[in-house]
Design a protein that fits this description.
alpha+beta; 56% helix
Length: 245
Amino acid sequence: MAGAGGADELKVLGAWASPFVLRVRVALHLKGLEYEYAEVDLADKSDLLLASNPVHKKVPVLLHAGRPVCESMLIVEYLDDAFPGAGQAFLPADPHGRAVARFWAAYVDDELLSAWLAIHAAATEKEKAEAVARTLAAVDALEGALADAERPGGGKGWFGGDGGVGLVDVALGGFVPAIQASEPTTGLRIVDPGRAPLLAAWVERFCALDAARAAMPAVDRLVEMGKKRLAEAHAATTAPAETSI
């Protein structure tokens, strides 16, 4: 098991609320790999973070025997390659299966996340409505992908199909706490059981994983943070303009 020191020493630089950091931590727990976790103050980034990720200066960063690996999904795949005997593989052996998994893992960020972020960046109600529609369309597409993954042999409720928790599960799983916090924070239900029953059941299964429970932030804490940010944003937009005399 990694983490005892030397060549297999693992350290994660992260921030507690980051869905990208959660991906990495869940992956490490699924692999059964021990690691040190270092919380980074993103308002005052540490020298270690800046030296480890000088290009983007972002978390997560995985340090393996002191060598940095950046970007959450690259780290997840790296764990498969660097520790082939630890836990189950996140990617299937079949080349087509690997390509499909990578497609949907990228879809989570390229479509679901980008549309979701656009909701909060919208300047008008029309832009907001369009972004909500895009977000829900991405959820619909992921519902279909999960149905396809379950179909061949009855499946086990994971995007990895009979293979169990895989790359797409880890990619989307990083956003599960934010999905749960969305409705109490903003009133928007991202995954509605009436619209996406398979995905809603998947969320419950993901939350029940020991690996997820060991790494997930408290949803109440995310809600508190989200409401504070919304209040600050509202105050900034409604503050009276300064006048000079």
